[in-house]
Amino acid sequence: MPSFYNLLDFIFVFECKWVYIISICGMVLKLVIESSQFQRYLRLMSRNIT
């Protein structure tokens, strides 16, 4: 039975790692999208100023 519990531990850790990786990727993607929108906003502002 210890091998069964080790397998469960491995699966749990593996799934936690995947959730962690996916959440980091999502945060990075969100930052990139927000930064691109921010750059577009800055471009519009600079056009209005000049």
TrEMBL record:
Keywords associated with the record: Membrane, Transmembrane, Transmembrane helix
Transmembrane intervals: 12-33
Identification of the protein by name: Uncharacterized protein
